[in-house]
């Protein structure tokens, strides 16, 4: 699901950092040159002349001067199916983030620095590239380009209520009018649009479920009836909301096991909007579709959601509750007059889903133990292979995917692996391709951020390693990133504390020496679900922490054109025993893979941090050690034991830190003499 905030934050780093690193090894001849005569187009560019002609023709009868094409789907998904890749088909540009605007004489793409060079390779000279990807930049362009009073068309299915608001707030005062066009104009001219993905939704096995779907329906209905604003129904628009409610999974979009769906849930009815031909007899029985009381699901065609919502709204006394971050404008705009509408940032399903039940907690932790085996296999293999000079970023990414696929309940990767060496890792979100894959070498740092889907859980972990001699600066930066990770992980806080109020703990050790990172510090994860599961995390729009929430903790540091460090673990909030208070929480780290010892300078760690680290390593030894034995992985077991040897404990480290103290208090003149 779209963790837009987190992704946006990542883009910040990218904007600041190493924009030339990704494609630098390739000659510039493969980018288009529209000022050459005739224009130079690389073989990777797509001729968009005819599609633009057709789209422009379809704009005229609608009386719109511009048409906006975002890169998302009707559920604001983080990953989209090929049939929703409208921006890519129109422009040729296949990057995951971007927005296009088409007028009668211009076609413009906005995307962030990760994708500028890719756009120059994939677009023909019909297209202009704008490098500031903010909504403000798009609306400013529209105001300059089209006259006051003119209309700007958009597909309301592809805008969240909140994003629409930003466009509207910028354009309306300038007298440019947004015109909602629910029939997508690209779809009308896209003759070879990919079909609906073929797989039917499936139900989760009972072994991974504690709450049946009627129990979940009860939980949400209780919140409807307790709400003082008296809503009569909840509308669910994000794909994970419906999948969660009914304990169903699907295969419509990459990486996330979701299926196209909406749900309208009232106190006594349940309407599920899906591609009904994909609902098997078994699912119909499971969902109780052939009855009409309050625990019977009425199956309705996916495409009828607008007309059905409209007919519901015609009833008297109804009020529909929607979460504005994940409801699309196409449904929201129907809910009039205002007394039929109740909004909150997140739907009650998203907030309820964020707290895992006991079964979900247990199996998600178990999935992380098997996942740790796969990641250790990668790290052990790289330690052997990299000195031979045979591996690159892509072969490493494939290797970890393969290791995961051998683990029980594996269902593929949970996102595209970030496998980045040297300067490529300075781009926080870089994934290798055939053109860019960098050879792995003992003289560079390497960052691998990867995760798996398992029937019982979703994982996401980042480790950064060096196989040769790291510099003192690399060691210090790595240690300070680790200190940030540990400081958040070991924090004790009152239940209900917001992540944003703890976030600086992850940055403090870096800030002390004037270092920082430009992305978010964590996000929720699901049970065989989204890997970036909103609304848990450390940003201002995340909800307060309660017991049973899982979040990533992932501080980092990126040095432009040189290296990147990120240390990411998943942790669950658990009760903490405190001397005086009740109802305090702390984190228990469930990702169980050792850090790179070579990069840790223990004399920077406080005794408490060192104690935490040693405890963590003890846990790895007992929990993953047991699993490695069970799987008969002797070599991996020895590797793990070597890498989790205890660090010098408090007494020994106290000696080191008092020596450090002594040196720092010496007058600098004396220090110079000593050196
Ligand atoms: C594009 O072509 C023009 C005209 O031939 C040339 O002057 C310019 O250097 C080229 N630009 C790039 C980036 O290759
Ligand atoms: C793109 O296609 C159009 C229409 O088929 C054709 O007229 C034009 O020459 C093509 N442009 C290029 C650069 O090949
Ligand atoms: C087209 O839109 C403009 C600007 O909103 C409006 O003035 C004009 O009347 C519209 N024309 C038609 C035919 O609807
Ligand atoms: C399905 O409906 C039947 C009767 O129509 C009811 O007895 C049963 O409890 C329902 N099943 C669920 C899971 O609610
Ligand atoms: C990358 O190269 C390999 C080997 O040449 C090839 O099999 C693979 O399809 C390529 N992948 C992409 C995404 O181009
Ligand atoms: C470890 O950190 C201490 C304190 O900053 C520093 O004096 C020492 O040189 C560092 N050691 C290494 C091996 O980098």
From TrEMBL:
Keywords: Hydrolase, Membrane, Metal-binding, Signal, Transmembrane, Transmembrane helix. Residues 1-24 form the signal peptide. Residues 583-647 form the Peptidase M24 C-terminal domain. InterPro entries: Creatin/AminoP/Spt16_N (IPR029149), Creatinase/aminopeptidase-like (IPR036005), Creatinase_N (IPR000587), Pept_M24 (IPR000994), Pept_M24B (IPR033740), Peptidase_M24_C (IPR032416), X-Pro_aminopeptidase_P (IPR050422). It holds the Pfam family Peptidase_M24. Residues 363-572 form the Peptidase M24 domain. The chain crosses the membrane at residues 647-671. Belongs to the peptidase M24B family. This is Xaa-Pro aminopeptidase 2. It comes from Onychostoma macrolepis.
């Amino acid at each position: 699901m779209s963790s837009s905030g987190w992704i946006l934050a990542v883009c910040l780093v990218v904007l600041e950092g190493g924009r030339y690193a990704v494609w630098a090894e390739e000659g510039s001849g493969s980018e288009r040159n529209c000022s050459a005569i005739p224009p130079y187009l690389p073989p990777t560019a797509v001729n968009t002349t005819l599609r633009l002609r057709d789209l422009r023709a379809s704009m005229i009868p609608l009386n719109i001067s511009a048409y906006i094409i975002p890169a998302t789907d009707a559920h604001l998904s983080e990953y989209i199916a090929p049939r929703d890749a409208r921006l890519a088909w129109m422009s040729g540009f296949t990057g995951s983030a971007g927005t296009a605007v088409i007028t009668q004489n211009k076609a413009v793409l906005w995307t962030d620095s990760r994708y500028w060079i890719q756009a120059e390779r994939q677009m023909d000279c019909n297209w202009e590239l704008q490098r500031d990807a903010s909504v403000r930049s798009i609306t400013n362009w529209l105001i300059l380009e089209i006259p006051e009073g003119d209309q700007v068309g958009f597909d309301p299915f592809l805008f969240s209520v909140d994003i629409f608001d930003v466009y509207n707030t910028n354009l309306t005062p300038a007298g440019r009018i947004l015109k909602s066009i629910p029939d997508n104009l690209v779809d009308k001219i896209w003759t070879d649009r990919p079909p609906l993905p073929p797989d039917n939704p499936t139900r989760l096995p009972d072994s991974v479920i504690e709450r049946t779907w009627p129990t979940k329906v009860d939980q949400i209905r209780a919140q409807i009836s307790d709400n003082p604003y008296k809503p009569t129904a909840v509308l669910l628009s994000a794909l994970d909301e419906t999948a969660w409610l009914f304990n169903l999974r699907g295969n419509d979009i990459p990486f996330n096991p979701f299926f196209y769906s909406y749900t309208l849930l009232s106190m006594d009815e349940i309407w599920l909007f899906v591609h009904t031909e994909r609902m098997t007899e078994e699912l119909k029985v499971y969902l109780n579709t052939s009855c009409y009381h309050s625990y019977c699901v009425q199956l309705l065609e996916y495409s009828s959601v607008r007309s059905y919502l409209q007919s519901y709204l015609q009833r008297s006394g109804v009020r529909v509750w929607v979460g504005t971050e994940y409801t699309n404008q196409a449904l929201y705009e129907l809910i009039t007059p205002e007394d039929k509408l109740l909004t909150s940032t997140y739907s009650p399903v998203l907030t309820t889903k964020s707290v895992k039940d006991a079964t979900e907690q247990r199996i998600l932790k178990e999935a992380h133990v098997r996942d740790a085996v796969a990641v250790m296999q990668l790290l052990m293999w790289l330690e052997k292979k990299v000195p031979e000079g045979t591996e690159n970023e892509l072969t490493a990414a494939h290797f970890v995917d393969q290791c995961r696929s051998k683990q029980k309940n594996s269902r593929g990767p949970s996102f595209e692996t970030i496998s980045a060496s040297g300067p490529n890792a300075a781009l926080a979100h870089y994934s290798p391709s055939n053109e860019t894959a960098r050879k792995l070498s003992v003289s560079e740092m390497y960052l691998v951020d990867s995760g798996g889907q398992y029937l019982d859980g979703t994982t996401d972990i980042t480790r950064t390693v060096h196989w040769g001699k790291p510099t003192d600066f690399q060691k210090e930066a790595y240690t300070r990133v680790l200190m940030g990770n540990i400081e958040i992980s070991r924090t004790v806080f009152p239940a209900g504390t917001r992540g944003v109020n703890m976030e600086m703990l992850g940055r403090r050790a870096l800030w002390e020496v004037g270092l920082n990172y430009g992305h978010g510090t964590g996000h929720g994860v699901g049970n065989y679900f989204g890997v970036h599961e909103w609304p848990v995390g450390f940003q201002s729009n995340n909800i307060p922490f309660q017991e049973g929430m899982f979040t990533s903790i992932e501080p980092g540091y990126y040095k432009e054109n040189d290296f990147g460090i990120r240390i990411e673990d998943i942790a669950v909030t658990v009760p903490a025993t405190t001397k005086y208070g009740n109802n305090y929480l702390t984190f228990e780290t469930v990702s169980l893979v050792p850090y790179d010892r070579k990069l840790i300078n223990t004399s920077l760690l406080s005794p408490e941090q060192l104690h935490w680290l040693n405890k963590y390593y003890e846990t790895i030894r007992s929990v993953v050690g047991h699993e490695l034995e069970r799987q008969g992985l002797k070599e991996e077991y020895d590797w793990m034991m070597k890498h989790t040897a205890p660090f010098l404990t408090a007494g020994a480290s106290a000696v080191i830190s008092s020596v450090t103290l002594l040196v720092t208090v010496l007058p600098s003149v004396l220090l110079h003499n000593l050196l």
